[in-house]
Specification:
With 291 residues, the protein is of the alpha/beta class. It has 3 domains: 2-61, Nucleic acid-binding proteins (OB fold (Dihydrolipoamide Acetyltransferase, E2P), Beta Barrel); 66-214, Rossmann fold, CATH 3.40.50; 228-286, Probable gtpase engc, domain 3 (Ribonucleotide Reductase Protein R1, domain 1, Orthogonal Bundle). The protein has helices at 29-34, 90-102, 119-135, 148-154, 170-177, 188-194, 236-242, 259-265, 271-286, and strands spanning 2-10, 13-18, 21-27, 43-48, 53-59, 65-66, 71-72, 74-82, 106-112, 139-141, 158-163, 204-207, 210-214. Strand 8, helix 2 (90-102) and strand 9 (106-112) form a beta-alpha-beta unit. Bound molecules: guanosine-5'-diphosphate (GDP), magnesium ion and zinc ion.
Length: 291
Amino acid sequence: MKTGQIIKSISGVYRVDVDGEQFDAKPRGLFRKKQITPVVGDIVDIDFETHASGYIQHVHERKNELKRPPVSNIDILVVVMSAVEPDFSTQLLDRFLVIAHSYGLSPRIVITKKDLATDAQRAEIERLLAIYQHIGYDTQFIGKDDDVQAVFDAWESGIAVLSGQSGVGKSTLLNSYRPELALETNSISQSLNRGRHTTRHVELYPRANGYIADTPGFSALDFDHIEKYELDGYFIEISEASEYCKFRDCSHTNEPKCHVKALVESGEIADFRYQHYEQLLQEISNRKVRY
Ligand SMILES: Nc1nc2c(ncn2[C@@H]2O[C@H](COP(=O)(O)OP(=O)(O)O)[C@@H](O)[C@H]2O)c(=O)[nH]1
Ligand SMILES: [Mg+2]
Ligand SMILES: [Zn+2]
């Protein structure tokens, strides 16, 4: 019996990394009855039939899990956005951050295509990133020839997942981190024409102290699991300020003596962050009740 981590799956066969050695394993028949499908990122126990291949006997409890595509036990969620093509948007960034927090993941921000941005665009993005840094986020702004090695290896141990819209440069980042991967990258026109992401399966690649995966992770529209009352908890600075609101269940919209609104007025909380909070709150409130 050996214990390792699933690093990829190819049509029902799982590649398991056991202390740097790789083995192929299949799930036991029992799993299908219990409807347990092992996913990339799972810690599993395997029994061996032959030297090289075995059966997955047990899937250890997952500390977290993303559904599309499935990947578990994520430690670092990297929100990747481009400066241009497509244009950087704090609205989209905030959506990704909220979803990451809602899954209990600690997000990092990486902005790509610095080399394609004009001086004015760079200055504006740097101004905005300073706001996110002040909130407490780790941010990086990089271009084609910048060193991603140092960036990726500085993150703490565990599984890091690159997440973000198609075309922002996730595969390009991984290729510059590990040129031998030679992952497929797509031009903007191609990705728009296809309208779909080319990365369909998840694979964990070795990183200093862990792994990194190239995956869309989740869509920026995935808000179905988030309740109205918990939304403020996913905006770090709003959450901190909310402790000083008069009402414990303050929604920071119309209530008197709302500390969040006071800080928005004094400029300590960025206006655009508050607007994105309000927009999302509205969207969640308008959501139809599903059964
Ligand atoms: N100039 C420049 N182009 C980039 C950069 N990052 C990605 N690209 C280009 O953007 C396009 C989409 O990149 P890709 O890695 O496929 O994005 P993905 O869909 O997020 O994996 C490709 O044509 C890349 O060559 C960058 O930092 N600078
Ligand atoms: Mg890609
Ligand atoms: Zn309030």
